[in-house]
Design brief:
Blueprint: H1 22-58, E1 65-67, E2 82-84, E3 94-103, E4 114-122, H2 125-133, H3 135-147, H4 151-155, H5 157-175, E5 180-190
Antiparallel strand pairs: 1-2, 2-3, 3-4, 4-5
Helix pairs in contact: 3-5
Length: 191
């Protein structure tokens, strides 16, 4: 019949389940895996990294006595500590700590950072008092020297020794003393 439209009929049987969408299951699986990775990262950070960070602050030599001032209630970070090192016969020395200097190395455009702490071996308690009095100048010198270094200089052992010498020389100039006997890296994290 010319002009009649053909009609198509589709027969649907009752009781047959519709096919499940396969894309939804994959999305749910990937979301579950992603959530698991995030939870695992948080657990590792809390149980592994945080205790490691705090244990490095607590580590110290046995036989050392701590000489500190009473803690002040202020916005400042933890005060540096002056420790009296073991007496080795003729003279005694003191170690002054400056912690948590965070800088961006030269040439990184702010995409990398270095967290570093120092210990300074001093020949007298008077120099320890001078360090404490002029701490802001000392921190400024440390930040200036460390932020002028490139990643290559910060990771090379020979360059670290050169940097240690530069720090010792600069701080001796600032404090106008020759009683600064050694500079130690007590924490060095490059990200």
């Amino acid at each position: 019949m010319p002009g009649d439209d053909e009609k198509t009929t589709v027969e649907v049987k009752e009781g047959t389940p519709a096919e499940p969408r396969k894309g939804g299951n994959k999305l749910l699986l990937m979301g579950g895996i992603g959530l698991g990775v995030v939870v695992l990262g948080v657990v590792v950070a809390l149980l592994v990294v945080k205790p490691m960070m705090s244990s490095s602050e607590e580590a110290g030599s046995s036989g050392e006595t701590t000489v500190t001032t009473a803690p002040e209630k202020s916005k400042e970070a933890e005060k540096p500590k002056v420790k009296k090192a073991k007496s080795t016969g003729k003279s005694e020395s003191f170690v002054y700590a400056i912690k948590d200097i965070v800088i961006n190395p030269a040439g990184t455009g702010g995409s990398r950072f270095l967290s570093v702490s120092f210990g300074f071996e001093l020949a007298s308690s008077q120099l320890a008092a001078e360090f404490e009095r002029r701490e802001l100048l000392v921190r400024d010198a440390l930040i200036t020297i460390m932020s002028s270094k490139t990643i290559a200089q910060l990771t090379d052992a020979k360059q670290k020794e050169i940097t240690r010498y530069q720090i010792k020389k600069r701080l001796s100039q600032i404090l106008n003393t020759e009683e600064l006997t050694a500079v130690y890296y007590t924490d060095f994290v490059l990200q």
